[in-house]
Amino acid sequence: MVETIRTFIAIELGDELKGLLMQVGQEIQSRIAPRTVRWVKPHAMHLTLVFLGDTPVTQLDTIQRAMTAAAAEVPPITFRAVGLGCFPNPRRPRVVWVGVDEPAGHLKQLKAALDRELEPLGYKAERRRFSPHLTLGRVHKRAGRGEAQGLGQVVESATLKELCRVTARQLCLIRSELRPAGAIYTTLASVPL
Questions:
Q1: 149-177: per-residue pLDDT in tens?
Q2: CB neighbours of residue 14 within 10 Å
Q3: What are the extents of the domains in the chain?
Q4: How far apart are CA 71 and CA 169, in angstroms?
């Protein structure tokens, strides 16, 4: 049987942005019921482009070559972290996020190039529209309906101006090991944009 590991492709975030995202999470937490949200730890914050899932270890080099080909199509990507929202919506929040604004279109171009390069390897592109975001937290499974709706109201009423501008210069293949205390992420490969 072929050994597999859980992987995804992402842009890693710098410490400045991670710190600002943590402040946003703390501000939201101060306005909602305790234990409504499981907040993402700073070391686990990233901008996911493609979730690969269970990946054969024998395919890692091929995936890295696909990433290199896709990354060669775009320059370093400058984006703004701005705005606050929930998936699927504020009435039934499951995920709280900060938006990513990149008007040049390089992020979407990179995502399309990755999808195109990975498809021959058996990774189908997601059907839903690409919506780049930075996950702050996920609604806890034990949170009641009223607590979740309270979170949605806080998010909906918030005005989050630009946190900062970030220039991404590399693309990373990351391993995700699920543990009871939270996922452990290990960067397996990086390729320049």
A1: 999 999 999 888 888 999 999 999 999 99
A2: 12
A3: 4-192
A4: 10
